[in-house]
Here is the input.
Amino acid sequence: MIINSIKLSQFRNYEALELEFHPGTNLFFGDNAQGKTNILEAVYLCGTSRSHKGSKDKEMIRFGQEEAHICMRLEKKGVESRIDMHLKKNKAKGIAVGGIPVKKAGDLIGIGSFIFFSPEDLNLIKSGPSERRRFLDMELCQLDRVYLYHLTSYSRALMQRNRLLKEIAFRPEYRETLDVWDQQLVRFGKELIARRGQFVRELNGILAGIHRKLSGGREELTISYEQSAEADQFEENLRKGREKDLRTCMTNCGPHRDDLCFTVHDADIRRYGSQGQQRTAALSLKLAEIEIVKKNAKDTPVLLLDDVLSELDGSRQRYLLENIHDIQTLITCTGVDHFVENHFNIDRLFRVQAGTAVMEIP
Here is the structure.
């Protein structure tokens, strides 16, 4: 899959911008705070309906405007598709595929696959559990329409249950209605737990070899899925923890409390790993993500690299660049030195400055 073009109107710091991409490597360079990341964010948002930063729609609309528009043209196996997205300050976003409005973000699944890699992702291993859950959910939502449905349903039930727990403190008679939301949590939570476990097993099968090469054969990396409750014990644990939930006014058990553990030679590198180990593991994870998308989607994803190379040492830069030559890549950076030093081919070069992006000769 490749992106042929994107058109922005009133998005972030862009009043109007239209770009045509090369099927290979597209490099956006310029000083900080000029709008490089905003281009990658627009691509990811239009392809997935979500900002990689978790930004709200109104935050991505250009200052002083009420709406923003993105139009992206994709090509998959020789067939072109068009995705239009309207962001509105006080209403839900509007999405259309091929000019036909769609009601759910899930309708975008299967049209394209996108992998976003930012400096923040290099800190994924040492970040909190919420960031690692977010990684799981963002990837699985792109790969699996059913997972997206289960996650949305679970999140809705969790929100309602937590709201009810707070109300019970003032209206004890509402306590008996907790069973309704417990059933919903268990129903959808079991599905999330099972699919996440399957995904982690798949990741491990690909990740080990990548990390072995990145570490020069010195390290064996393993990921394990840490569950606050096993799928078959979720209902019982929820029931046993009800009194604690009532005291704290929140649901303390379920997939919304799960985590990923990264171990090297039986040591938990979330806590005991060096920064180098943690960053190498994060890079291995992203490269494994590319391979999983290729396998499951039967196609290549578009890779969005947001100023990552400046955060990697020379050997990791070279390994990353050597492993992305066969997929369309959009890269942001402040300069082109990393690419010249590594003799990396740049197919299309854009200089980004004050809300403009002008193509230059590589």
About this structure: The CA atoms of residues 119 and 308 lie 5 Å apart.
